[in-house]
Amino acid sequence: MRIALLSSSKRSQDIFGGFKFAAPLMPSMGILQIAAHLEKNNHHDVFVYDADLMNCLREEQILEWIGQKKPDLIGISIFTNHVDTSQKLLHRIKNEFPTLPVIGGGPHCTIDYQAAFQELPLDYVGVGEGDETMTELVEALNQQRPLDSVLGLAYKANGEIKFTGPRPLIKDLDSMPYPAYHLIKEYIPLIRPQIMGYKKKPLLLIISSRGCPHSCGFCSNHLLWGGKYRAHSAQYLVDMIEHFISQFGIKEITFFDDSFILNKKRVLAFCDLLQERKLKIYWSANINLNNVSDEVVARMRQAGCWYVSTGVESGNNDILQFIGKPLTVETATEKLQILHRNKINCRGYFILGLPKDTKETINDTIRFVLNNPLYLLHLTVYTIQKGTPWYSENEKYGTVFYEHNDGMSGTLAGNIHGLSFVGHGLSADYLLQTQNQVYKKFYLRFSQVLKMLKSISTLDDVIKMVKFFGAGFYFVVKSKLIK
Ligand code: B12
Ligand code: SF4
């Protein structure tokens, strides 16, 4: 069976308007993992089309590609923030290839498979981890077996939607094949995370663990990954990095899982192995601040880590407690100092206008942002999301605009869509203006400009910096004009 795996545009390119060159270009890891699992199980006619990365944002190009590949099954990965592009694409596919079956998967489908069937012309929906589900579906279809044995699958039968039951989580992540980067080999040189979030290309994204043991009110992680933390071993990761260096000459890795350093033993072993094997590679990771210590961070730095991203979310302890985040303002301050001392750049994620936020708690967040050693700032206005613990609670704390529930409404880039939540005592204007002002204050401080200038060591760094400030200026002006 020939299988085409797709990801429609995540819209980053459109959002950046005239500053496309500064937009991140990242592959959809879900389809690369699924492709690898299919290949491991001897299904070798697998093709991947990542619309953003392949810079083919028009549906015609994807349809043409499908026409050439002649798949027997299409799999598409869907995040809530790009349901609209997936919807358009799928309707075109169904018009052009009416008998070609399509399975949807990814966070949006897992969170509400019933809704996914209503919104999108899908034949099947993969709920949860799709690696084994997809392989088993292909085998069941090949052998014309009934589908009820394929766990984690929803499908239409006699006008009804049937769900086969939850797919158990994969126990041993090391039994999984490496993501199938070879299927998008010629596009690897294009991969880049946020413009200031990498040093050297070619670069690959790696997901080193799945799941997070915490359950923050605004995050759907618990529902998606079952609240269980599972991780690849240090040995597996270093073998994989060595493999990718030899295959594609990569120079940097971005670990994009939720918390790379949750298991201290694993991080230390990973750093030791990288150094033992003399693998000189830059890397960065998403981390939780409460796992930071001098010991871990110093080893990370020695082993090539230069940058981390972390969610602090708020500068007020009551709000942090309400979120359910295991962090206090004092701990966050102390841990950011540790990163700073060890010369690891840090990007902080913060949210304005969370349920229970007031102008006073927001001022605490602003003070925190401006008074701690952060290298980059990511500041969004709170956006409601299906599948999060707070989803049905939001109305207690403010006005909810469900029509703006696309995940992007609170980002500086996405304000144009309108906010999805405005807390009691706050207004959309106030939130958007505050976001705009804090960005300007943060990046235009003399100390910040100096810090960023000091980090320049190559011509490429200069170019990135110009693009970064250009795009930043574009967003600030755009969000001021659109009211
Ligand atoms: C890396 C990441 C990003 C990267 C982008 C990565 C990329 N390639 O584009 C960055 C930092 C840019 C980012 C931004 C945002 N992100 Co993000 N991100 C993640 C993160 C941490 C990892 C994603 C990942 O690669 N996971 C690993 C892969 C293997 O998992 P997966 O893609 O889910 O695939 C598995 C299953 O879903 C399923 N599956 C996937 N596709 C398919 C297809 C088929 C056919 C089948 C059967 C199964 C299937 O099987 C796969 C393997 O098991 C997740 C959280 C998480 N831990 O998953 C959030 C997450 C995906 N992001 C989320 C959000 C909300 C955003 C933002 C909208 C936030 C914001 N307001 O700015 C933006 C959107 C920006 C944009 N333009 O896309 C939400 C999405 C929720 C939703 N309902 O869609 C998540 C789940 C976080 C959360 N818990 O709330 N993100
Ligand atoms: S926000 Fe981060 S720490 Fe909180 S549940 Fe989600 S992934 Fe875990």
From TrEMBL:
Q: Does the keyword Iron apply?
A: yes
Concerning CDD domains, the annotation shows: Radical_SAM, radical_SAM_B12_BD
Q: Which residues form the B12-binding domain?
A: 11-148
Keywords for the protein's UniProt record, in alphabetical order: Iron, Iron-sulfur, Metal-binding, S-adenosyl-L-methionine
Domain (Radical SAM core): give its ranges: 198-420
Cofactors (names) = [4Fe-4S] cluster
Source organism superkingdom? Bacteria
Q: What name appears for this protein in its UniProt entry?
A: B12-binding domain-containing radical SAM protein
- Species the sequence originates in: candidate division CSSED10-310 bacterium
